[in-house]
Amino acid sequence: MAANRRQFARTALAAGALSYSRILGANDRVGVGYIGLGNRGDQVHEAFLEHGDQFTAAVCDLKESYMDLAVKKSRGAPRKYRDYRRLLEDRDVDAVVIATPDHWHALMFIDACRAGKDVYVEKPLSLTVREGRRMVEVAAETKRVTQVGIQRRSVPALREAAEFVRGGGIGQVTVAKGYHVQNEWPAGIGAPPDGPPPSEEEWEAWLGPAPKRAYNRNRMYYNFRWFYDYSGGQITNFGVHYMDMIRMCLGKDAPLAVTAMGGKYAIRDNREIPDTCEVLWDLGGTLVVFTQYNANGAPGNARGTELELRGTKGTMYLQSGRWEVVPERVSDLEFGQRTPVDRAVERAWGASRKPAMEPRSGGSGSAETYPHTRNFLDCIRSRKKCHCDVLEGHLSTAACIIGHIALRTKSYLEWDARAERFTNNESANRYLHYEYRKPYRLG
Fold first, then answer.
1. Above 80 in pLDDT, residue 350?
2. Could you tell me the fold of the domain covering 2-153+369-394?
3. Whole-number Å distance between alpha carbons of 97 and 120
4. Angstrom distance (rounded) from CA 103 to CA 36
5. What is the H or E stretch that residue 180 is in?
6. How far apart are CA 73 and CA 69, in angstroms?
7. What is the largest CA-CA distance in the chain?
8. Whole-number pLDDT of residue 2
9. Dist. CA 316–CA 173, nearest whole Å
């Protein structure tokens, strides 16, 4: 049954693509170039391959094996490049997908926009707040269609859930929590020693604007996200999904303040990011919490879901592409008016407390990337704003970045969202960007 529903959703979402092929002709397809094809890049490539109105025009990666696999999966014969700038010069490339490590996103995104390409860039949008703001500015200047890979924005059931919350469905939301829970104890990603890189040229190209460091295999490819030179850690890796969904549900742009606590408490590896932390944001009437427990795998809440929104009338639990609402039970009596008997009965049976709303639920399965890539391709043709354009992606990413700044500085930070600066801790503002290695510069 779940597979049938999934196929039905995909058929409906593909209807737009079929109509385009009738109007534009079978050969008028979007040529897509891919920069970064390991792990998530491979997954996004597969999501695009499911659409008949696009084709893989070119691929770019430092690893030949990643490119070879992408070429094998593609129809036709996409060209291979080791230098992304050569891919941007390819006239068959109409749009670019960037799925590199975070510290490369800004430079590649800006270069792609200025090369006249529409851009799909994986989350988190940027490594720093300043990078993200510059990406927003350049996309506006060049009038490019952009999509940030926070795919929950395009899942119909989750859009329905957000609309339900914004419409007051669960009452006033006072607390929203996201959980990233998995047990990586004791060895984590391991602790290999520093040493000479297999290829000095590849290591140099991989580092790009990041500081020059001694080579360590954990600093490259998948494990880069455990090091601050290249990533905001799990606060930006997973947290940006949760923050974006919460923002969509509440209709709010940015936090007023943030604080955090945590550290590397238990795992014996060479990571820099914590294995345990909690980040708290004041989102203007709603307390938002990101919980990262990576030395214990027990569920964060009774439902075992990744997200919860606690409203005055009910609690919404979200897991991937599905959601449910559990009603609150409330009493018309003020606390001071309740007799000891009233309170005893309430504790025992909840007899004098009534459900504040009816239970609700929606969605099934996972938060797939397919509808998000479909939305991007549709917007390339219509020139409309994507579900998660660069501005929406920046707002969610920036909120998470300032969360890991609060953790690194052990601070309570008040945030001026308009100026994108901290108002009560000038020293924390130095983490809003970093000095690129020469010759790289944020254009």
1. no
2. Rossmann fold (3.40.50)
3. 5
4. 13
5. strand 173-181
6. 6
7. 78
8. 38
9. 10
Q: Phi/psi at 316 (nearest 5 deg)?
A: -100, 130
pTM of this structure: 0.91
Scan for tokens 């529903």, then name that residue: 5
CB 428 within 8 A of CB 409: yes
The span from the CA of 394 to the CA of 125, in Å, is 6
Which helix (H) or strand (E) covers residue 57, if one does?
Answer: strand 54-60
What is the CB neighbour count within 10 angstroms for residue 197? 18
Q: What's the whole-number average pLDDT of the chain?
A: 92
pLDDT per position as a tens digit, 178-233: 999 999 999 999 999 999 999 999 999 999 999 999 999 999 999 999 999 999 99
Query: Going by DSSP bridges, is the β-strand pair 30-35/95-98 parallel, antiparallel, or unpaired?
Result: parallel
Closest by Cα among 304, 284, 257, 332 to 173: 284
Average pLDDT for residues 418-436, to the nearest whole number?
98
DSSP conformation class of 183: B
Its CATH architecture, for the domain 167-188+230-363+395-432, is: 2-Layer Sandwich (3.30)
According to CATH, where is 3.40.50.720 located in the chain? 2-153+369-394
Per-residue b or e along 64-98, where b marks 16 or more CB atoms closer than 10 Å to that residue's CB: eebbebbbeebeeebbbbeebeebbebeebbbbbb
Which amino acid, residue 266?
A
Cβ pair 397, 236 in contact under 8 A: yes
Number of Cβ within 10 Å of residue 8's Cβ equals 10
| pLDDT score of 102 more than 80 | yes
Position 28 scores a pLDDT of: 86
